[in-house]
Design brief:
This protein is of the alpha+beta class. Helices cover 48% and strands 16% of the residues.
Length: 391
């Protein structure tokens, strides 16, 4: 509790005092509850404000306020909907707890670095940092499930990064934290450089990766037969076979933007032969050479002959590019390089442990987020040590 001195002036406890850390934890849990709404609705194109109240994903019944208390309600209801008994994913509890812990850690770190005994304007940078944490949590869970990073989160995150640099100019240059006292213009310059290097640097990597590795292609000198093979049971996927090559449907289409493009010499659709040309298949159906669209659920048989088929696919999505821009705006050029390196190492480790190959789901966003958090929570000290050793 604040103490009242002899002068009548209120003296507040330092920012790393348990009372403020508890407040940060509770605020983070409440924000985490809202993030669950964002994670569920945003990828589906649903409004995060309409309906305003959360609802059960099973029976769609609105959840009253008394049953929507962060952390407590999920435990109290044992992870089930009160109305229909549908099991509520443990992800909801995990998001609330993770956000609460990260909010607390951010406040503790900023108070430790800036000194928590006396309030400074730089302490206000905690607010954009909390916004970054909220964006990171939403991005990581959305990308892990849907392999997409919403542009709304990255654009707002970039703006928050510039605001953070204005409030705390040391933030985009953590390795110079102890040796200099930069002004707001210095912080904004470092933030802008970080954004440019993060965004355009990774954009170039995406373009090069798409040219070098981002496609699967079948090419033959003479036309060969291709067809879609129906599964023998509901658990098996549809397969595309061209000549001797065979690939499962979910290994072709694991992003909404993925396409299988066939340069068909001949084409038979549901027993009807039509003129050949460029046939485009996507996750939910196909587009015939004459422009007609057929839903996958309405398709009975598809076959033909072709010399060439291709799955054009970028090594990383543009969402990752925008995410690197956000990281650069907050943590500057050094933060970009560290986050990309650490995120790549995390992704490689996950790929090795999970034996992930081409066509398997490997979102890069969560690993970039993990790399950026590693930088903020102490990874910058490695960069500081490296720069000092060079000097």
């Amino acid at each position: 509790m604040p103490e009242l001195g002899f002068t009548g002036r209120v003296i507040y406890p330092p920012l790393d005092h348990p009372v403020w850390l508890l407040a940060a934890f509770l605020v983070g849990a409440c924000i985490g509850s809202f993030l669950n709404v964002v994670i569920y609705r945003l990828p589906l194109g649903l409004s995060v404000n309409d309906p305003k109240r959360s609802f059960c994903p099973g029976c769609k019944a609105e959840i009253p306020l008394r049953l929507n208390i962060p952390l407590v309600s999920w435990l109290w209801l044992r992870g089930k909907c009160r109305s229909c008994g549908t099991r509520i994913s443990a992800r909801y509890f995990a998001v609330e707890l993770l956000t609460a812990l990260l909010f607390t850690a951010v406040l503790w770190v900023m108070a430790d670095r800036l000194g928590g005994a006396r309030f400074q304007p730089a302490h206000l940078a905690v607010i954009p940092l909390w916004f970054l944490i909220a964006s990171f949590v939403a991005i990581a869970f959305i990308d892990a499930e849907h392999l997409v990073i919403p542009l709304e989160l990255t654009i707002s995150g970039t703006v928050a990064g510039f605001i953070g640099a204005l409030l705390c100019p040391q933030l985009p240059d953590l390795i110079g934290w102890r040796s200099m006292e930069p002004g707001w213009l210095d912080g904004l310059i470092q933030s802008g450089l970080g954004f440019l290097i993060g965004f355009f640097g990774l954009w170039i990597v995406v373009l090069l990766g798409k040219l070098a590795f981002g496609r699967v292609e079948w090419a033959h000198d003479e036309p060969v037969e291709w067809f879609l093979e129906e599964p023998s049971n509901e658990e098996d996927p549809i397969h595309f076979q061209m000549g001797e090559d065979r690939l499962a449907w979910w290994d072709i289409f694991y992003r909404k933007s993925d396409r299988l493009i066939i340069e068909a010499e001949t084409l038979e659709v549901d027993g009807e032969w039509i003129e050949g040309g460029t046939l485009k298949l996507h996750e939910e159906g196909l587009i015939l050479p004459d422009g007609r669209e057929i839903k996958l659920e309405d398709l009975k048989a598809l076959r033909g002959t072709a010399k060439k088929a291709v799955v054009p696919r970028e090594a990383m999505g543009m969402g990752d590019v925008h995410l690197m821009g956000v990281i650069g705006a907050f943590f500057g050029p050094f933060g970009v390089f560290f986050s990309l390196l650490a995120g790549s190492l995390y992704a490689i480790a996950a790929a090795i442990l999970g034996r992930i190959g081409f066509g398997m789901r490997l979102p890069f966003g969560p690993f970039l987020v993990l790399g950026a958090l590693t930088w903020f929570f102490g990874g910058w000290k490695l960069a500081e040590w490296y720069v000092a050793s060079l000097r």
